[in-house]
Amino acid sequence: MTAEPEVSRRERKKEETKERIFKAAFALFKHKGVDATTVEEICDKADVAKGTFFNYFPHKEAVFGYLGEDWFAQAEEDSTAILAKPGRVGPQLIAMFSELAAFYEDEPALARYVMDEWMRNQHTGTDEMCQRWDDLAIRLVEKLQANGELRADEDAERLACVIQCVHQGTILEYVASPKSPFPLRKELRRRLTLAIEGLAPRGGK
User: Fold this and answer.
1) Containing structural domain, residue 188
2) Most buried in the list 21, 121, 172, 181, measured by CB within 10 Å?
């Protein structure tokens, strides 16, 4: 039997440690609240040294960035399966991205912290995960253009930006409101449908 490469074992162990820290932090955040939870408590629950925590996360709120990694992996897997199917794929992609926002409805007490962390990373312009989301959106738009579901006379990056603004703006409106202004997933489906229909090819052009 071939021995597992040392690098592979090391990377797997790092990922397991990161996930353990995330699960410990998330459990404490749900039980005590984010503001009342300390890094020391997270480390105790995850059974890691404080220095180890900061090897993975610069501050406790950055733990929420791990959710983005999980969501991206799910989106990439689901979208690949959807795009492999024949015919129109827009409605399926709309449903997929609407369901990815379930966390914001299911965990309202934590939703603001997730959005704050996303906004912080978005504005730095250097966050790798934000760039990966942007790249995925462009690839999906290019597929929709090739399918004839989106107009091809506009740049894919510009169309992706418009659709992302609708998606992210709807989530931001929901999270920022003192009371839930609408059922989030249902509203996302409606707005994304309007956006994609509005960007469909013009008849006769």
Assistant:
1) 61-197
2) 21
Distances 26 to 23, 67, 141 between C-alpha atoms, Å? 5, 10, 34
| pLDDT digit string, tens, across residues 134-144 | 999 999 999 99
The dihedral through the CA atoms of 76, 78, 84, 85 has a sign that is negative
For residue 118, which of 178, 55, 63 has the smallest C-alpha distance?
A: 63
Measured CA distances, 151 to 61, 134, 146, 162 (Å): 40, 19, 9, 13
Task: Pull the structure tokens for residue 115.
Answer: 């959005």
pLDDT at 141: 96
Q: What is the pLDDT of residues 78-137, one digit of tens each?
A: 999 999 988 899 999 999 999 999 999 999 989 999 988 888 776 665 568 888 999 999
Question: Domain with 53 in it: what CATH number?
Answer: 1.10.10.60
